[in-house]
Amino acid sequence: MIPALRRYARALARDADIADDLVQDTLVRALRSERLFLGGDVRSWLYTILTNLNKNRRRSLARRPQFMPLLENNPDASGTEAEGRDIARALSTLVEEQRAVLLLVMLEGLSYREVADIQGVPIGTVMSRLARARAHVKASLEGERPALRRVK
Amino acid sequence: MTDPKIPVTEDELHAYVDNELPPERRGDVEAWLASHPDDAERVHSWRAMAEALHARYDSVANEPVPKRLELDRLMRPPRKWVYGAIAASLLAFIAGGGTGWLVHGAAATPSTFQAFTADALDAHRLYVVEVRHPVEVPGSERTHLQQWLTKRCGWDVFAPELGSTGLKLVGGRLLPGPTGPASFLMYESASGERFTVYTAKASTETTQMRYTAQDRNGAKDGALFWADRGVGYVVSGTSDRERLAQVARLVYDQTEKKGG
Q1: Residue B50 sits at the chain A interface (C-beta within 8 Å)
Q2: Mean pLDDT estimate for chain B
Q3: Taking the alpha carbons of B69, B251, B93, B225 in that order, is the dihedral positive or negative?
Q4: Which residue in B62, B223, B249, B258 has its CB near the most CB atoms, within 10 A?
Q5: B12 chain-A contacts, CB cut-off 8 A
Q6: Distance, CA of A100 to CA of A90 (rounded, Å)
Q7: pLDDT digits (tens, 9 = 90+) for A9-66
Q8: For the residues of B24-47, what is the DSSP string, one character each?
């Protein structure tokens, strides 16, 4: 379970240290809580804690101005490495809820029902987030840049 | 049974790829895809996307799990392992001429942490040069200072005793932090060397200790920062690692005892 949590955290937070901090916090919270010993779906529950912790982390970040690069600067990317970087970059352009849905379904293999419970939304919302996330990532991988990028 | 003539919806295409489609509808969707190349292309691209995600991130799941995430370590009495994790990173900092975690923490994408570490270093820089009004409440009113800051910040603000490293409490002030109030304490040695201890609410419960340094106008300030029980600590001062670690260690030991 911990390897899968780390995978999800890494893709969600896109920084190895922050990702492992999130996993550590998740595990500490889980171990402290009695719910763990009452049974239930531990896997979903751990994903829920981690998703919420990351949301809180991002919320506090959002209050500060962010610096975005105006120019892309890896012209010579090639091969699998580049593919990995592209998918990571495409992920980074998604809004938080959509990124979480995409990763929980496509990377972690959770059901729509489980993701709906994790995010506390109806299944229909999960499906529309997933559809939008897939369309956005597809466009991003195919090189369509949002209009904003043309500004130099 | 479903009617194969009912057009396949976008939702059904997603459900098909994610194995969420009722089995009796799968055949209809497959037939639909055979005659709708645009939809078939989309389905194909989603599968390729899943493969790309696994290619990029599965290696993380195959990495050995770092020691700090081992369950038996986490299940020890809480204070002990927290102490272990933070103190161990401090030891690594003191011992290693190491790059590793130390450089990484400063260079990676901005975390909440780096945000308030930057605030702390800015405050440090702003006030350490102040001769007449470095603080709002002088160190001679230590008890009042602690009570006031604790009340305003909402966590236990405690001014550690740093006499054994030659530092005396100058005093403290209240500052705006990234998500609310922050406490700021200043210490000074007989030779005028100044250190500051900044606390603010952290979004993470506990982290390892990390190091960051900032250059400005040739002067280099270093800071060690960590989170413990939801409070973030930043000890700023010299970029001399050993000296900084010595001070941070004392601050950590005393706040640790205080709360644990």
Answers
A1: yes
A2: 81
A3: positive
A4: B223
A5: none
A6: 13
A7: 999 988 888 888 888 888 877 776 644 444 556 788 889 889 988 887 776 665 544 4
A8: HHHHHHHHHHHH-HHHHHHHHHHH
